[in-house]
Amino acid sequence: MSILRQTLHALSELCLVLGLVGLFAPLPAAAEGGPDAKGHRHARAAKHRADPCQRLSLAHGKARGHDRKCPRLGGSAGAARGDFNDDGFADLAIGIPDEDLAGGADAGAVIVIYGSSNGLTAVGGAGVPASQLWHQDSAGVLGVSEDGDHFGAALASGDYNDDGFGDLAIGVPDEDSSAGIANDGAVNVLFGSASGLTATGDEFLPNPFVQAAGDRFGAALVWAFFNGDSFSDLAVGVPGRNIQVSFATPGNPAAVAVDAGAVAVFHGSSTGLSGATPQFVAQTSPINPGGSFGNGAETDDQFGTTLAAGLFNGDVFWDLAVGIPNEELAPGNVANAGAVHVIFGSVDGLTRVSPQVLNQTSAGGAEVPESNDHFGAALAAGDFDNDTHHDLAVGVPQENIGTRADAGGVNVFHGSDSGLVGNGQFWSQANTAFPSEGGAESGDTFGAALAAGDFNADGRKDLAIGVPGEGVICLANSQEPLCENAVGLNSMFRAGIVNVIYGSPTGLLTSAGPGVQLWHQDVAGMSGIAAEFDAFGSVLSAWNFGNGSQADLAITAPFEEIAGSDSAGAVFVIYGSGDGLAAADSEVWHQNTPSVPDSVESGDHFGEALY
Question: How far apart are CA 378 and CA 449, in angstroms?
């Protein structure tokens, strides 16, 4: 439902020096062999795969693992379900940024599977569109597929032209500019209709900054109503943006913070997103006349690596949370400790008034900022206690738990009339209420992905937590060859799991709903076979795809082997119920699933982004 349109003010944001520094400034214009009983999965070949990432926890905000084909975590987020044909059911958009096309290797693509009263269906019929394949070589889509574009690396849906149909923004962070600037970035926008997404009237948003190599405009996306009108707005992360931090003087060139990062915000209108001048959001520098914000822009901060939005202070204007997982914190120059900046909405859009800077010190509790924690590497907003204020979950996937390096954790901040408040709520697998495959262990990366959804329809959001580095204990009936002589051992390295914790009147609580749940591919009733290096839980998305009134959970295993194609990737869907998520009708989707377009290929990493 659209928020009532507010009277728009004509006041413009302060233009900052050169348009390059400051907090805000307007920018210039089925299966793997033979099917099982469900026809979903097949037994994989008996072979041992080397770790495709060497280390799942790459430096955040760099090339996002393109060279080693590792997943880009936390790039897509939002507050609106993607209902592209306005039938009341969410549709699932699946990014395949490493898809090879005629135009080039890793050009990228997106597949859309539509929701229905019976859940997701690729076949179509009875008013439900058949599944779709989109890329920059699709008829009518603006742009041209090229090597390494990574179309589909981030996704966000909102009704950008307020016509009642959800629209889809698609990040293309490594798009070269029309002038040949490498990895400048872009965003494609496809608009919804009664027949689903269409290229008619689609938009191509180029990087609005002065062109520079490596900006990676479109690496993260989030939808919200920042100015409270009825048109959806889009925030776009530009984590590779360089920010000028001093004036040039005779004999001294201007200093620049390389890869400091920025965010561009596009406001929706009756014609979409391309008509208005976007806002520019970044950490300030000493030469900004608007004052300081946080630690200021610094080299390699990569502000805008992750994004989330919510009504954190309870008014009608949505607020923006910006993840800066490489932020260095003082005192002590704690490198890559990470931070999150929260910028509040207003009738004029995002505002400088009383922004917040969150880190593990402001979270309260026993955990403190440490080097390479990467606080803010994943974000999810949701009202976990149903008090009308959205809360914010912050992933800290490289958090050390005792002596267990990179075991991971999640901090939760609660919304209030004054914004987000830390009260010490911190979750990790060291909490004995969390079912796990061995407790908190080195390399688990608990909190590498997050999604909020009401899985039991009690009015409170619940939190799904990806743990893609977790090993899965071999079961007696496992079909994984490595388990033949290792039953009961934690031998399936980085197979991955997902934990789910449910909301309550006091927020997330281990005893709420069905209690904390543990999901992986060997859970009874699940469609799948857990295997080493699948990294199940790398990407999460939660919406009601149909088949009930509850939210459902989509989970990516980007390194899943399909029909002998290594790292082809798959997406698993677990449907909600009155008792929470249940395996009974779970599904697996990949490019060999009947009626899903195209076919599996090694290294596609199907599902590296979801919405």
Answer: 6
Q: Give SS3 for 41.
A: coil
Report the SS3 class of residue 17: helix
- The type of residue at 534 is D
Q: Which residues contact 285 (CB under 8 A, 6 or more apart)?
A: 21, 22, 243, 244, 245, 246, 257, 296, 297
The predicted pLDDT at position 611 comes to 94
pLDDT greater than 70 at residue 63: no
> What is 121-160 written as a DSSP string?
BSS-BTTBPPPEEE-TTSTT-SS---TT--BTSEEEEE-T
DSSP 35: -
DSSP H helical segments within 205-272, as ranges? none
DSSP designation for 482: G
The pLDDT tens digits of the residues spanning 119-155 come to 999 999 888 999 999 999 999 999 999 999 999 999 9
Give the C-alpha distances (Å, rounded to integers) separating 162 from 54, 63, 329, 531.
45, 35, 41, 44
DSSP character for 481?
Answer: G
pLDDT at 5 over 60: no
Reference 324, options 283, 275, 385, 384; nearest CA is: 283
The answer to whether the Cα torsion of 367, 338, 309, 552 is positive or negative is negative
Task: Give bridge partners of residue 154 from the DSSP assignment.
Answer: 171
Laid out side by side, the sheet with 462-467 consists of: 449-453, 462-467, 497-501, 517-519
pLDDT band, very low/low/confident/very high, at 224 (cuts 50, 70, 90): very high
Q: Other C-beta atoms within 10 Å of 125: how many? A: 9
Please list the alpha-helical segments (H only) found in 258-303: none
Q: Could you give the CA distance from residue 176 to residue 552 in angstroms, rounded to a whole number? A: 36
Is-contact 264 281, C-beta < 8 A? yes
Peptide bond into 129 cis (omega under 30): no
Q: Which two tokens stand for residue 537?
A: 């839980």
Cβ-based neighbour number of residue 333 at 10 Å: 9
Per the structure block, which two tokens stand in for 566? Answer: 């290594």
The answer to whether residues 494 and 441 touch, using CB atoms and an 8 Å cutoff, is: no
Token pair of 521, please? 């591919």
Contact 299, 381 (CB under 8 A): no
Cα-based torsion angle of the residue sequence 303, 305, 310, 316 in order, rounded to the nearest 10 degrees: 50
Q: What DSSP assignment string belongs to 490-553?
A: --BTT--EEEEEB--TTSSBTTSTT-SEEE-TTSTT-S----TT--TTSEEEEE--SSSSS-EE
What tens digit of pLDDT does each residue of 155-201 get? 999 999 999 999 999 999 999 998 889 999 999 999 999 999 999 99
